[in-house]
Design goal:
Elements lengths: L4 H32 L5 H8 L3 H4 L1 H24 L1 H20 L4 H20 L1 H8 L3 H32 L4 H4 L1 H15 L14 H19 L1 H4 L4 H23 L13 H17 L2 H12 L4 H30 L1 H19 L8 H27 L8 H36 L4 H30 L11 H14 L1
Helix pairs in contact: 1-6, 1-7, 1-8, 1-10, 1-21, 4-5, 4-6, 4-11, 4-19, 5-6, 5-10, 7-8, 7-19, 8-16, 8-18, 11-13, 11-19, 14-18, 14-19, 14-20, 15-16, 15-20, 16-17, 16-18, 17-18, 17-20, 19-20
Membrane topology: Multi-pass membrane protein
GO biological process, one term: response to antibiotic
Subcellular location: Cell membrane
Length: about 500
């Protein structure tokens, strides 16, 4: 009457996996949102806490530096002591720091809380993709799960702009942090109940304390150097000195990994051309793409005169397009044609969308000049992100999935920080040069944004070239019937 015990058990295991995915993605969405939710609230924060113009950028940077620096270390600790333990710890730290951010009454307290918040976000994010891959071993289900994860990753930034504008305008800036508290508490409690506990490979395999210090210092110093170029410039002694120090630390780390008996980052992860290529493509793509929300916000507000709410709504179509592709269409395409075949047109669409934005006029119209560029951007990113995540994790073993996940997220953070610093500097210097020649403010600003958008399109075009020449196609996995899949899922669940 109720079906066979094997099929009922398989159905229960499947529901459990998707519920666990929902918990993972809710925590990840909260962390990703906080990377951008503060952007539209910065003027209110500056007026309320009396930030100086030079220190205001650190409301964002104090989050980015520890976030980008700790991903790799947190990912490896997930492999060693268990990814569930690391994920829940990260959520608790992030939630507590969000509460401190919300009650902050001085710049120093807010910046210190943002640093801790970035550290907690890194710890939770680093192991998420590895847990997703482990939860869904079957190719078809894994493609769907990675599509959901990729939607959260890519659309979270746009949703953050919308949520930040709504909360700041309707209540106050404190609530962009307070909103994390109930979500974080519920996510941590559900994660404790619903995620599978794993012991990890154990600290007895070696923690490589020296390697951990070297790579964390190198990554934090790299992100710090990049974000500070807006104040010091690319050719300053500050940038060159700190950049050289970060490079020296990174080289020392790599040398140690090649010789160490228990490396923090096993270099075997990079033996696959598809894995190594996906990491490089990820950095180039996000360097070109992730500066788009920042630059587009400036164009909509400073040139077209949009307010915070209208700005968030204006960029929201990108999230809608990403969701439509990532959650439904992309997983089926990847399962049918393979991730490389889906990635290539995705990158081409992103480059086309950025090139279209590179032609926006000073007296532009949202529906004529902006929206036609946002649609290919959203579709392209909805195709590209799940494909890249699939490629990056394609050779990861259960023992290495945490470090592979952390590495994938690290490349995203380094790429986005570098792209934003470079492209925003290009836009500002181009604008200043035109203002010096007597151009109007609107015309000079628009020309600067155009130049940055076109440069971003060039970076994505480079990613497309790399993908076409480095990545290899794989045969499409053989289709399996539900009857074939069910016993395997049951056996896998029993083994856990």
């Amino acid at each position: 009457m109720g079906g066979s015990p094997v099929l009922r058990t398989a159905s229960s295991a499947q529901r459990s996996r998707w519920s666990a995915l929902a918990v993972l993605c809710s925590g990840q969405l909260m962390v990703i949102l906080d990377g951008t939710i503060v952007n539209v609230a910065l003027p209110s924060i500056q007026a309320d806490l009396h930030f100086s113009s030079s220190n205001l950028a650190w409301v964002v940077n104090a989050y980015l530096v520890p976030f980008g620096g700790l991903l790799l270390l947190a990912g490896r600790f997930g492999d060693l002591i268990g990814r569930k333990r690391v994920f829940v710890t990260g959520l608790i730290v992030f939630t507590a720091a969000s509460l401190l951010c919300g009650v902050s009454q001085t710049p120093a307290m807010l910046l210190a809380s943002r640093f801790v918040q970035g550290a907690g976000g890194a710890v939770a994010s680093a192991v998420t993709l590895g847990m997703v891959v482990t939860l869904f071993p079957q190719p078809k289900e894994r493609a769907k799960a990675i599509g959901v994860y990729s939607f959260v990753q890519s659309a979270g930034g746009s949703l953050g702009l919308l949520a930040g504008g709504a909360l700041t305008q309707t209540i106050n800036w404190h609530w962009i942090f307070f909103v994390n508290v109930p979500i974080g508490i519920v996510a941590a409690l559900l994660a404790g109940r619903m995620l599978h506990s794993e012991r990890g490979v154990g600290l007895g395999r070696g923690t490589d304390v020296v390697g951990a210090f070297l790579v964390t210092s190198a990554l934090m110093l790299s992100v710090y150097t990049i974000v500070e170029t807006t104040d010091y410039g690319w050719h300053s002694a500050h940038t060159l000195g700190f950049g050289a120090a970060a490079l020296a630390l990174l080289l020392a780390f790599l040398a140690r990994q090649m010789k160490g008996a228990s490396p923090l980052l096993p270099l075997r992860v990079f033996r696959s051309r598809n894995v190594s290529g996906a990491m490089g493509i990820q950095a180039l793509m996000v360097a070109g793409m992730f500066s788009f929300p920042f630059l587009c916000v400036l164009y909509l507000q400073k040139v077209l005169g949009f307010n915070e709410m209208h700005t968030g709504l204006g960029i929201f179509p990108v999230s809608v397009a990403i969701g439509a592709l990532s959650l439904g269409f992309s997983p089926r395409l990847i399962a049918r044609f393979g991730p490389r075949a889906v990635l290539l047109p995705g990158l081409a669409l992103i480059a086309a969308g950025l090139a279209t934005l590179g032609r926006v006029p000073a007296g532009g119209s949202y529906f004529v000049d902006i929206l036609p560029a946002l649609v290919p951007l959203g579709i392209g990113f909805g195709l590209a992100m799940p494909s890249l995540a699939t490629l990056a994790m394609s050779a990861a073993t259960p023992e290495d999935s945490g470090i592979a996940s952390g590495m994938f997220n690290t490349m995203q953070q380094i790429g986005s920080a570098l792209g934003l610093a470079v492209l925003s500097t290009l836009a500002a210097s181009h604008t200043d040069a035109l203002l010096g020649h007597g151009e109007s403010t609107a015309s000079a600003l628009t020309s600067g944004y155009q130049f940055a958008f076109r440069s971003g399109a060039g970076l994505v075009a480079a990613a497309l070239l790399l993908a076409a020449t480095v990545l290899r196609s794989h045969a499409t996995p053989q289709r399996r019937t539900p009857a074939q899949d069910a016993p395997e899922s049951v056996a896998e669940n029993a083994n856990r």
